[in-house]
Amino acid sequence: MLEKKLVEFAHSFRHDPLAFVLFSWEGVHPYDWQEEVLLDIGNQLKAGLITTQEAIQIAVASGHGIGKSCLVAWIILWGICTQSDTKGVVTANTENQLKTKTVAEVAKWHGKWRYKHWFTMTATALISTSDGHDKTWRIDFIAWSERNTEAFAGLHNAGKRVLIIFDEASAIPDTIWEVSEGALTDEDTEIVWLAFGNPTRNIGRFRECFNKFRHRWKIRQIDSRTVPGTNKTKIKEWADDYGEDSDFFRVRVRGQFPNSSFNAILGPEDIDAAMKRTVPFGSQNHAAVILGVDVARQGDDSSCIARRNGLVAHQLRMLRIPDTQLVAGQVAQEMDTHKPDGVFIDETGGYGAGVIDGLRVLNRDCVGVMFNGKALDPRYFNKRAEMYFELAKWVKSGGCLPDDPELKHELEATEYSFQGDKFRLASKDEIKEAIGRSPDKADALALTFAYPVIKQGVRSLGGRGDNYAPSPFGEKGIW
User: At 398, phi and psi to the nearest 5?
Assistant: First the structure.
């Protein structure tokens, strides 16, 4: 009798996901925004929106901690439980996100579900226990791959229900969105496509759900401050640290897309202004002179030496020399000519080790910098992100860049995203793929911001004091 009642209730909830959630788990009380999304799905299904032209498409951009993963789990379990032979696919921005967040949340709710015995939960799928339906009644959890899109292209289920869910959708590439649209060609099929995520990127199909394609999607943007249970103390700290109008706060709290074009650390107008800017002659005489050396990693890359004197970055010197000892010799010449107060060498992956060793053999002081090393400022994912953001601040506060089209192109292509609550830059390889060459010039200039450096012989008014740090250049400088 109990099983018969469960079947009857499941059938009655086919077009009522909110009632399904309230019935399936005792004591569950959805947040207002979760309830609204569940009602949206139910109301559209009740209205008969099941044709190719009117597939249910809902996109939710949100801040942190609003209960997104919980709602995703409820919808997955509703979708598979209330329509026999439902098929679906769930993916996320990364395989780690999919396994440790999305799948883990589904497993948690499945474990205390009234209908638990109807479906088997594995690490890669939610599958009906009904005999002979393991291939036709299932939701698969699939990490996306641009080289293998078959799972998204072949999702058809004519006359039944198709469920597509993108979690942390901002970072899912356009190709996966495009092939997933192939599932929308089945007539007389309940098609529910949902996209959730923090709006971390100002480009891509998730962004276009709220702009170019907003006529196809029902959209919501959820501010973390409006949701019970979010960490209001942490949100206040973020507001104090970054400002409520900052891109960080817009993305992580307000659920709004960043202002910066293409998520670039610098816009073209910032770079153009810096390349046209000048400072009075001699005004930087008391500023530190710093060299940054990016070392070539592959045969088609070049090593590059950047020199910055306070607010002035000078013309960059490219070295198409494969031998690290010869590169070290050229850096030593620059050091003899310009008497730098600090020299920072790219040591990532060991590529710069030969240059550093060569300089030390020549009795020249330098500091190796690991791009993937730990940042001084905990807001940044790694040292590379920290250096680039310091470079961006310098440009916006009056820095003068050399008139160099290649440098401009590299800086414009340097995008950022967020890893948790930390700023993270696009990798060197990603930028190389985007612009067709390695960002050697931008990396060399960024290295001049690796650590604070002051002019040789300069001391703070209070002597060494609490902020004194021994210099890698002996008593000549402080960094």
Answer: 115, 5
Q: How far is CA 400 from the centre of its chain?
A: 29
If we measure between CA atoms, which residue out of 159, 26, 152, 133 comes closest to residue 81?
133
Angle of the 405-412 helix axis to the 268-276 helix axis, nearest 10: 150
Cα four-point dihedral sign 336, 338, 340, 345: negative
Burial of 79 (0-12, 13-18, 19+ CB in 10 A): buried
Q: What is the pLDDT of residues 17-71, one digit of tens each?
A: 999 999 999 999 999 999 999 999 999 998 875 544 568 999 999 999 999 999 9
Q: Which residues contact 75 (CB under 8 A, 6 or more apart)?
A: 17, 38, 41, 163, 165, 192, 194
Place 147 in a pLDDT band, splitting at 50, 70 and 90.
low
Domain boundaries, the chain: 2-259, 268-447
CA distance 118 to 137: 11
As a whole-number percent, the residues of the chain with pLDDT over 70 amount to 90
Domain formed by 2-259, architecture: 3-Layer(aba) Sandwich (3.40)
330 neighbors 321 (Cβ within 8 angstroms) = yes
pTM: 0.64
Q: Is 2.30.250.10 the CATH number for 268-447?
A: no
Task: Give the percent of the chain with pLDDT over 90.
Answer: 64
- The strand pairing partners of 88, in sequence order, are 139, 163
Those residues whose C-beta lies under 8 Å from the C-beta of residue 382, and which sit 6 or more positions away, are 371, 372, 373, 374, 375, 424
List, in order, residues 6 or more apart from 331 with CB less than 8 Å away. Answer: 291, 293, 305, 343, 345, 355, 359, 364, 366
Contacts (Cβ under 8 Å, ≥6 apart) of 227 = 31, 33, 65, 66, 67
Task: State the pLDDT at residue 438.
Answer: 87
Average pLDDT over residues 76-86: 96
- Does residue 407 have a pLDDT over 90? yes
Mean pLDDT, residues 408-422 taken together: 84
- Measuring CA to CA, which residue among 168, 432, 142, 159 is closest to residue 296? 432
Helix, strand or coil, per DSSP, at residue 375: coil
